[in-house]
C-alpha cells in the first residue's frame, strides 16, 4: 500500500506544470524550464533519485501553496509567511534523506554566493553553515544544478519523464522529520 498522501504527486507535478507559464524572476526561462534543467543535469551526472528529485522540486514552494503564504525577499518574512525553500523542504522531507531536505531548505542562502553581487544580499550568507556536514553538498548542488540552469536553448526531458521517480519516492512510508 502506498504511503503517499492522497494526491501528493499530482499536487506537486500539477504545480510544476502550471509553473511553465511563470518566468523565473528576471530570467528568460520559466520556473518549469529551470526545474527541468536542474533535474536533467543531475540525472546526466549520475545523481541518485533523491538528489534528482530535489533538483526538480527545490523551488516547488514558489507555486505549490497559496502565494500569500510565501515571502522570499531579502530582509525577512512577514508574519505568517515563510520562504519557498522552507515550504519545499517541508513538502519533501518525510520522503527523502535529511541531507536532501536540508539542501532544499538552505539553498537560497548558498545561492547568494552567485546572486548577491548582482541583486543585493550577503554573498557569504552560506558561511554560517561552514561546519555543517552537508555544507559541501549544498555548494555542489547550487554550483552544478541550480545557479546555471537558465539556458533558453537547453534541451531537457519533459516533466512526465520524471513521473515514475516522483511516484516511487512519494510512495515510501513517510518518516518523522528531525530538522
Secondary-structure element string: HHHHHHH
Number of strands: 0
Arithmetic mean pLDDT: 87
Structural class: mainly alpha
What proportion of the residues is helical, as a percent range?
Answer: 40-55%
Q: Give the amount of beta strand, in percent.
A: under 5%
Cα(first) to Cα(last) distance is 27 Å
User: In this structure, how is the largest beta sheet organized?
Assistant: none
- Rough shape? globular
Can you tag this structure with a few keywords?
7 helices; 179 residues; single chain; mainly alpha
Summarize the structure.
With 179 residues, the chain is an all-alpha fold.
Topology, element by element:
Layout: H1 8-18, H2 31-44, H3 49-57, H4 84-92, H5 98-119, H6 135-146, H7 163-170
Helix pairs in contact: 2-3, 3-5, 4-5, 5-6
What does this structure look like?
The chain has 179 residues and is mainly alpha-helical. It is built from 7 helices and no strands. The chain has helices spanning 8-18, 31-44, 49-57, 84-92, 98-119, 135-146, 163-170. Helix 2 (31-44) packs antiparallel against helix 3, helix 3 (49-57) crosses helix 5 (98-119) and helix 4 packs antiparallel against helix 5 (98-119). The protein is globular, with a radius of gyration of 15 Å. It starts with 7 loop residues before the first helix and ends in a 9-residue tail after the last helix. The model has no long low-confidence stretch (mean pLDDT 87).
